[in-house]
Amino acid sequence: MHHGETFRHTHFMDLDLPEKACTFLCGDVICRYWDWAKKVASLFPEYKRMIEGMKPFLGRMHAKVHEWYCQIIWVGHWMSEDALTIGEEQEQVFSKMSRYGSETKHMGIANRRDHLTAAVLFWNDQKEKGMALKQIEISNKQLESDISKYKLKIEQLPVLLGELRNAEKECKAGKEHLKDESPLQ
Fold first, then answer.
1. pLDDT for 26-58, tens place per residue?
2. 3 with 34: CB under 8 angstroms?
3. What is the percentage of the chain residues whose pLDDT exceeds 70?
4. Could you read off the pLDDT of 117-155 as tens digits, one per residue?
5. Is the pLDDT of residue 158 over 90?
6. 154 vs 85, 91, 105, 147, CA distance in Å?
7. Which of 58, 116, 122, 159 makes an SS bond possible with 74, Cβ 3.0 to 4.6 Å?
């Protein structure tokens, strides 16, 4: 890929989401795509439904390679009602299922189908048994740890988020001295 990721896949997903009553749109290039989608919606009214009521966000792991201010604006962790979505769920499934490639490589079609069906059922069973609860537990422990480490009060968190968003706006507006100084450090 000489040009990096394009809007093609994100736009393709975005076209179907209003019909499915989805609230969130996660994409690897959402920080640049969303401005483009708003511009398209303003020029072509038939695309306006794509942006209305939608909450775009950037997956946490993909955000690590974006600018710090991109992480503040677009990572779903900072949004309300995101249910601790990390935006990398499909990659987790691909990672787990790719392990079966070497196991099923020399199987017949029927055996491969049975093996992969059993693997998917096992994966779903494990998810239902507690992955979400475990994630909430881990996040709560991390939050408690950070609050005590930085000597914060829970009431200060919305204020800090507001300060980060203001710093992001200043940085994006072109104040060079902020580009190298992340308020997260």
1. 888 898 899 999 999 999 999 999 899 888 988
2. no
3. 86
4. 999 899 888 877 777 777 778 778 888 898 899 898 989
5. no
6. 21, 32, 52, 7
7. 58
Exposure of 36 in the CB half-sphere (CA atoms within 13 A): 11
Between vectors from CA 56 to CA 27 and to CA 72, what angle results, nearest 5°? Answer: 95
What's at 165, amino acid-wise? R
Residue position matching structure tokens 């303003």? 42
> Model-level pTM?
0.60
Angle at 172 between CA 75 and CA 143, to 5 degrees: 30
Token digits of residue 151:
């000597």
